[in-house]
Write a structure and sequence with these properties.
Elements lengths: L1 E4 L3 H12 L4 E5 L31 H4 L16 H14 L6 E3 L2 E7 L3 H4 L2 E7 L2 E7 L1 E4 L23 E4 L13 E5 L3 H11 L4 E5 L6 E2 L9 H5 L2 H9 L2 H12 L22 E2 L3 H6 L3 E4 L2 E4 L3 E4 L6 E2 L2 E4 L17 E2 L2 E2 L1 E2 L3 E2 L7 E3 L4 E2 L3 H17 L7 H19 L8 E2 L1 H12 L5 H7 L1 H9 L18 H6 L1 H6 L16 H16 L3
Parallel strand pairs: 1-2, 1-7, 2-3, 7-22, 8-17, 9-10, 9-17, 10-13, 11-12, 23-24
Antiparallel strand pairs: 4-5, 5-6, 14-15, 15-16, 18-19, 20-21
Helix pairs in contact: 1-10, 10-12, 13-14
Length: about 525
């Protein structure tokens, strides 16, 4: 029996993967519906993520799909939140997940059973309708997300206590009406910050973004009009990034991100451009900077009564409203601190999933990761791996080995990503997926396919690393995986070629297909 906490993206994937392995999941959802982050409500609900109605997915539908359930072909390439929620509902219905979900049920506490050392069991206390119930479960999957508890470090902003204007965390934002005719300051330059700044600039008198680090900006519409992640998240690109000498690799990344526009000219280039930064996805910001709707400024030095001072800027800027886009805090109020240790917004977890110190590996945290790609395939792959571990099909390394890797990962992440609010949650998308897939025997073999299905081998090597690749073989093999991979571009073009018939297409030139075989052989020499 497995307790699943939360019925968002991770919780649905966890429930489905448990069923695939013959486990008995019970999913506890405190609200009355599935969807988690992607279910919009006009009012902010305690303990739940809050979404503004204009949110659109930053990753394309083909790269965001669960590995055995493609999006409908008529869905747009990037999904408005309502359509993404519709997809999750279709997923739940298709795999009959709702009958395993207890809605309106809050998880109050999860504690080790008295004989945990031998059984690995947990006492789970839940509350529904004002009544508490205690049950014993053999394992637990924590899928409660990390967008519910806002981080608002006001102590880092001198003078905020005397600021007479309005200020709030981005979690409270819903509509841009309150910015009408105002001078607006957005602190922070993540995806939410840029989205809110762009929306505010359409009605505000002036909008300023304050960023101490800068950011790389990507458009959803990438080379030749194709989705950014279907171009960048490929095995070919991953091979280049991991095998080129460091300076050459970073030069290539800088070149790629500056093809759209020169970040330095727009005041956006990260201070240490050689550090890997999580890119910000927005299609409008450069043009809004060009037209004067949005101004980029350095970090806040001090707030005054009705204005703000920025570092290295002598002039005060009049401000009416401040939106703090300063991220979220990781917390598990239903767990004892000794179970999942959270320090500086970082939970020490092996592969971002398993606590390293438990006597039995019967508790896992899903979705607590910020990959440079779609989260849904990652959460699903985590769930597939975890369900194998719970069932005894996969073994974890010793505690000392896991702790050593967690500590090394922490050091490396700080080195590569720099010190940020979420530095240790970011990881390379494709490498992480391949690592977990290899644990359960689901990683595709490009070289093996080259002998049996060369066209498919070329497609998965040079084309996008869509999630269907992880259903080609091994446990959980899906008969439709090959067809889903070979028709992925058709589903991309279907909702855009609305004036002319949609035909099959590919993102790479035909010349690349001709020389692809030789390049793949070169990859063999590199030990791919």
């Amino acid at each position: 029996r497995v307790a699943v906490v939360g019925a968002g993206v991770s919780g649905l994937a966890a429930t489905k993967c448990c069923l695939d392995e013959g486990l008995e999941p019970t999913c506890f959802e405190q609200s009355q519906d599935i969807g988690g982050l992607w279910r919009y409500t006009e009012h902010i609900e305690a303990g739940r993520p809050s979404l503004y109605p204009s949110v659109i997915s930053n990753t394309s539908k083909e790269m965001s799909a669960f590995s055995d359930f493609p999006f409908p072909e008529h869905f747009p390439v990037f999904l408005p939140n309502a359509l993404l929620l519709d997809y999750l509902r279709r997923y739940a219905e298709h795999f009959s997940l709702r009958e395993h979900i207890k809605f309106g049920t809050t998880v109050v506490s999860i504690r080790k059973h008295p004989d945990f050392a031998t059984t690995g069991q947990w006492n789970v206390v839940t509350e529904a309708g004002g009544r508490q119930t205690s049950d014993v479960f053999d394992a637990v999957m924590v899928c409660s997300g990390n967008f519910s508890e806002p981080s608002l470090p006001l102590q880092c902003f001198p003078g905020i206590e005397r600021f007479r204007g309005q200020y709030f965390h981005s979690r409270q934002y819903k509509h841009p009406d309150l910015f009408q005719g105002k001078h607006v300051l957005v602190v922070g330059m993540g995806n939410s910050g840029v989205d809110i700044a762009v929306e505010a600039s359409r009605v505000a008198a002036k909008v300023t973004i304050s960023t101490s680090r800068g950011a790389w900006l990507l458009s959803r519409v990438f080379e030749h009009g194709y989705p950014w992640d279907m171009i960048l998240n490929t095995r070919f690109w991953s091979l280049i990034k991991t095998n080129l000498p460091g300076p050459l690799s970073w030069w290539l990344i800088n070149y790629k991100v500056n093809q759209w526009f020169n970040h330095k000219n727009y005041g956006l280039q990260p201070d240490k451009s050689w550090l890997v930064r999580e890119p910000v996805l927005n299609d409008d910001l450069p043009s809004y900077i060009l037209t004067g709707r949005i101004t980029i400024k350095p970090g806040v030095k001090e707030f005054k009564d009705n204005s703000v001072l920025f570092h290295n800027c002598p002039e005060e800027e009049p401000i009416d409203i401040v939106v703090f886009c300063t991220g979220y805090t990781v917390s598990f109020p239903f767990l004892e601190e000794s179970v999942v240790r959270v320090e500086n917004k970082h939970a020490s977890l092996y592969k971002y999933v398993f606590p390293t110190h438990l006597q039995k590996p019967t508790l896992a945290v899903l979705g607590l990761i910020k990959p440079l790609g779609a989260i849904m395939p990652v959460a699903e792959m985590q769930a597939r791996w975890v369900s194998h571990v719970f069932k005894g099909l996969c073994q974890l390394p010793s505690q000392s080995v896991m702790e050593k890797e967690v500590n090394e990962k922490k050091k490396n992440q700080v080195q590569w990503f720099g010190l940020t609010f979420d530095e240790v949650l970011k990881t390379e998308w494709l490498v992480y997926l391949d690592t977990l897939a290899s644990f359960i025997g689901a990683k595709p073999s490009v070289l093996g396919l080259l002998c049996t299905d060369p066209w498919l081998a070329l497609t998965i090597f040079f084309g996008p690393c869509s999630p269907y690749q992880y259903r080609l073989g091994g446990p959980g093999r899906w008969e439709g995986a090959r067809q889903a991979i070979l028709t992925q571009w058709e589903r991309v073009l279907k909702p855009t070629r609305t004036r002319v018939p949609a035909g099959s297409s590919s993102s790479f030139p035909s010349l690349l297909i001709v020389v692809g075989f030789l390049l793949l052989l070169a990859a063999v020499i590199l030990g791919f």
